[in-house]
């Protein structure tokens, strides 16, 4: 700690220079604006800005990119909350409760808690990055394929079993997601389930699936109500969050921050898994798990905190080992190389100005986000007052642009329509849609981890159960699936007894 | 027809879905088992994981098929095809997008969608759609330099 403090102060001295403050502000603003658009996301936002920042001095360039990164992470949640349009995998979970809050006239509270959670957890992440980066990086490398598989199995089973009224439907939705993840080329280069279509060799486009299943199905459900004469109510939205709501979500923010940072450190895990995992942990420890999915503020606070802390965590392997943990950090790594800065164990000693400037910039980015976005909440909420007959078609057009820009393939747009119909059917018939997305996001990595584990154990998976982390996660996965079943059984027995009493 | 209706009444929407899931997972599992590994040394193979999903999915589909009904079954016959009209409109839009170009396709789609959803007056629908399309093109094509399809049609002129 004694060594870290002067370096950290030096970093802040660099980041607080007026020109760097300005770059941080511009980065956070542009990141938020670009992050709002589906299909662009943090990685896209960074890629768009790369040609511009490469002409700047390395420290200012990294400060701007760091602020852009945090801004884009936050921007993605705005459309998730207001329009049920997730821009990337890390903001999918925010849709579940965030959009329900918006429907209840609490969009302002959802946006505020998202900004506050992002700030607090982002700060926690930066502190973690400062204090534990080298230690955590070496430990993360010990996390082998069996541990990854078990971690993902736990996250998946928890969300699938707790995100709907029916366990069977939740698990079926998860299987649909896993099945979609196997479309395309597998880890060894074998093409599967592509029906002869070359556009499917890279798999089902994530944006087509997520935007279709969330946004298009939302539009279909609402337009049906518009046509049948029961239009969605235009509510008077409360702009500010209450102190009680902040107090209620604070522990979820802290938990989300810690989970997000730790998951973010694992190479390849990323903000998407962090947000899903923190959400499932919140449901599991909640006294009222049935509130989740119906506008529970902790269901917004936890994933939003986790995805921001994960973005700080993802910098740990990138800076200390030169291993990018996500697509976004891979672009940051490219930016570092282009700026003649070599990431790796020597970076902390050779270029402390860059490392500590970047860490301080991340913190400043979080401050900028709070300063910028809390006043903008009112402006964003006004979007919901747009007449439905204008809003829904525009959501569809922006969704089409987002999906089309991923690969410029017409097939993705047809898939978007198909996924919209699938989401509409599922939501009308009591199937939770979150497990589909989670199954899809985790499926490929789960298969990769399982196959590597099988090779490691020469086909004998029981050997892997001797690894303590693996067995812990697998036991947790079994518990998360069996506890809701037992509870469901007791609840239905209770109902039967009540009915018999009433009849008697 | 009446026999079909009676069968439909006997099956709840969940049971129909369960049969559909069963068929999909069976086809998926059979399809996966026929895929050959790229290397003979690959002890797992590309069909292993799909096989696990197919078995799990089929078991869950059977559980859905045989689980006791809760309350009244959802009637199958009151499906309103008009609920899917916006997606038909969207499908038409995405199919013509690359042919007639983003600008024209979007204006036509927006006019139809605005009107379908109750925008008062044709003139207003046309005006709103032209303004919205121009704003979207300015933002995405010129602001963010993202590629929007110009269309095959433009090359004919």
Relevant terms:
heterodimer, A: 504 residues, mainly alpha, 20 helices, 75% helix, 1% strand, globular, B: 157 residues, 7 helices, 0% strand
Q: Ranges of chain B with pLDDT <50 over ≥5 residues? A: none
| Structural class by SSE content of chain B | mainly alpha
Low-confidence stretches of chain A: none
| Oligomeric composition of the shown chains | heterodimer
Biggest pleated sheet of chain B: none
How much strand content do the residues of chain B show? under 5%
Task: Please report the number of helical segments of chain B.
Answer: 7
- Radius of gyration of CA atoms of chain B, rounded to a whole number: 24 Å
What characteristic shape of chain A results from the CA principal axes? globular
How far apart, in Å, are the first and last alpha carbons of chain A? 71 Å
Given helix and strand content, the structural type of chain A is mainly alpha
Following the backbone from N to C, one meets helices and strands of chain A in this order, namely HHHHHHHHEEHHHHHHHHHHHH
Shape of chain B: flat
Strand content of chain A: under 5%
Roughly what is the average pLDDT of chain A, rounded to an integer? 80
Explain the overall architecture.
The complex is a heterodimer of chains A (about 500) and B (about 160). Chain A has one domain. Chain A is about 75% helix and about 0% strand. Chain A contains 20 helices and 2 strands. Chain A has helices at about 5-15, 20-35, 40-55, 60-85, 90-105, 105-140, 145-160, 165-180, 205-225, 245-265, 270-285, 300-315, 315-320, 325-340, 345-350, 350-380, 390-405, 410-430, 435-455, 470-504, and strands at about 185, 190. Chain A has a two-stranded antiparallel sheet. In chain A, a hairpin with a 5-residue loop joins strand 1 (about 185) and strand 2. The model of chain A has no long low-confidence stretch (mean pLDDT about 80). Chain B is an all-alpha fold. The model of chain B has no long low-confidence stretch (mean pLDDT about 80).
